[in-house]
Design goal:
Layout lengths: L1 H54 L11 E5 L4 H12 L3 E6 L2 H13 L3 E6 L5 H15 L4 E4 L6 H6 L5 H26 L2 E8 L10 H23 L5 E8 L11 E2 L3 H4 L4 H13 L4 E4 L3 H10 L2 H11 L4 E2 L1
Parallel strand pairs: 1-2, 1-4, 2-3, 4-5, 5-6, 6-8
Antiparallel strand pairs: 7-9
């Protein structure tokens, strides 16, 4: 008798719970479908927006009176970035370990009527970076923009010089970047205003012969930049921007007139000044990613999604094939 009553009670309970379970499953499925539709709609909107911006880019922002720290301002693209920022009205803090080259950059800026200061520092040690940050903050206060131009090798050095020790490569290209971010980015977050710019070589997109440590370090810089972007997004900080710039060094023609490219009509060559102009345009439009030259950014995106065998074939085809004439 008791077993019969228990079975009846259990049957009633199961019949009662079954529609509730069905309702919960239906509700969960509905929420999932809504989330999927929302993601698809926003993805389509993002693609349309990106396509629209190809034909009508966002307006450039002013950098007048921004305090800009340029690491690696003693030569090449770093020097040209510093000079052009000063011409746009920014207060430029030039940092380089080569005292003479760095002072020459500052003298050029001041000769053109710009505002600049010279700081000589080897950023491959944490203590030096901390001292530099303390001095800069004392002299200028808030640093609103940081350009990291170190670790971009020249075409000649890629081909003729032996690779640096792996520790030296990582310290120059990646580790020092962490130290600089730790010193300056917290202030940017507090004020919800700032811009971090990372310049990386194409070595981070495709392996360069006998330069494995450099390729690994440059690839890691890309991961660091993307992590910074995600950190800002998660913490809902929309006033601080990160821009990752891929530089194809073989197209920089300064002091490399004896270099011969496999496909010169495709790659072409530009000066450091032209490269700096392209970089600053992308930064002032708050692009998260750009390249020099610009059209090769899409090649990098293509190589990420194609099968491995296809990417190898394309890399072999477009291999710069640099040689000395």
């Amino acid at each position: 008798m008791e077993n019969k009553l228990f079975d009846q009670f259990l049957g009633i309970l199961v019949n009662f719970m079954f529609p509730i379970k069905m309702l919960l499953r239906t509700y969960s499925l509905s929420i999932l479908m809504i989330d999927i539709i929302w993601v698809v709609l926003n993805a389509v909107y993002a693609v349309m927006q990106a396509t629209f911006e190809l034909f009508r880019p966002p307006p450039v922002k002013a950098v007048r009176l921004e305090t800009v720290l340029v690491i690696g301002s003693g030569r090449g693209v770093g020097r040209e970035i510093a000079i052009q920022l000063a011409s746009l009205g920014a207060i430029v803090i030039c940092v380089d370990k080569n005292k003479k080259n760095n002072q020459d950059t500052v003298d050029m800026i001041k000769k053109q009527g710009g505002s600049a200061a010279c700081y000589n520092c080897d950023i491959t040690t944490k203590e030096n970076v901390e001292k530099l940050a303390k001095k800069v903050k004392f002299d200028f206060g808030f640093v609103s923009m940081l350009f990291y131009c170190c670790g971009i090798p020249s075409p000649r050095s890629l081909l003729t010089q032996p690779p640096l020790d792996i520790h030296d490569t990582l310290d120059l290209t990646l580790t020092s970047y962490f130290w600089l971010i730790d010193q300056f980015m917290p202030d940017m977050k507090k004020k919800n205003h700032g811009h971090i710019v990372a310049l990386t070589s194409v070595a981070g997109l495709s392996y360069i012969k006998d330069q494995m440590p450099l390729s690994v370090a440059q690839f890691a810089v890309q991961g660091l930049a993307e992590s910074l972007m995600e950190d800002l997004r998660i913490n809902k900080i929309d006033g601080v921007h990160v821009t990752l710039i891929h530089i194809y060094p073989f197209i920089i023609s300064d002091d490399n007139t004896d270099l011969r490219l496999r496909i010169p009509s495709y790659f072409g060559t530009i000066t450091s000044s032209q490269a700096a102009t392209s970089i600053l345009e992308s930064v002032r439009r708050n692009y998260p990613e750009a390249s020099v030259p610009k059209h090769l950014l899409y090649l990098g995106h293509l190589l990420r999604i194609l099968p491995k065998k296809a990417t190898v074939l394309i890399r072999d085809l477009l291999d710069t094939g640099v040689d000395f004439a």
